[in-house]
Amino acid sequence: MIDGIDTDDETVVIRARAQGLQTACPSCGVLSGRVHSRYVRRLADSPVGGRRVVIELRVRRFRCREHGCTRATFAEQINGLTFHYGRRSSGLQSILRHVALSSFRTATGRVAAAAEPAGQTAVEPPSSDAAEEAH
Ligand SMILES: [Zn+2]
């Protein structure tokens, strides 16, 4: 899930983490809910709207307690946010499209305000499916 998005003129930072209290050990398949540690992965994504995209992914390491399992700890898999080179998940894509639309709207708003002091309403973007997809 997406925790938040920070944007400035040059960078878009998307903070994300996995949902769920338990995750399955990749070795034995037994669910574990014991969090061993946490860390943040910073991933660079391809730019959107001329701005760099950085994904800050908070990843948990779980401890496998299954007797006889050789794996002591394992990092969770992030469902719904898969980061393959050159390919975004559809959920992330719609978020970035939403971010790009927002900045575009802000830019056109400034231009309209400079040209027309009053009486102008902002043009709404086409119906946004990003809001529906972000639960
Ligand atoms: Zn295990």
Short description:
The chain is 22% helix and 35% strand.
Map the helices and strands.
Blueprint: E1 2-7, E2 11-17, E3 23-24, E4 31-32, E5 35-48, E6 51-63, E7 73-75, H1 90-115, H2 130-133
Parallel strand pairs: 2-6
Antiparallel strand pairs: 1-2, 3-4, 5-6, 6-7
The structure holds zinc ion.
The site of zinc ion (ZN) has 8 residues, from loops.
Task: Supply Rg.
Answer: 20 Å
How many helices? The count is 2
Question: pLDDT under 50 segments (min length 5)?
Answer: 82-86, 116-120, 130-134
Helix content: 10-25%
Structure description:
There is one protein chain. Helix content is 22%, strand content 35%. It is α+β, with helices and mostly antiparallel strands and 135 residues long. The longest helix has 26 residues, at 90-115. The strands form 2 sheets. Strands 1, 2, 5, 6 and 7 form a 5-stranded mixed sheet that branches. Strands 3-4 form a two-stranded antiparallel ribbon. The chain is elongated and about 50 Å long. It has one domain (2-133). The protein has helices at residues 90-115, 130-133; strands spanning 2-7, 11-17, 23-24, 31-32, 35-48, 51-63, 73-75. The chain is built from 2 helices and 7 strands, in the order βββββββαα. Bound molecules: zinc ion. Zinc ion is lined by residues 25, 27-28, 30, 64, 66, 69, 71.
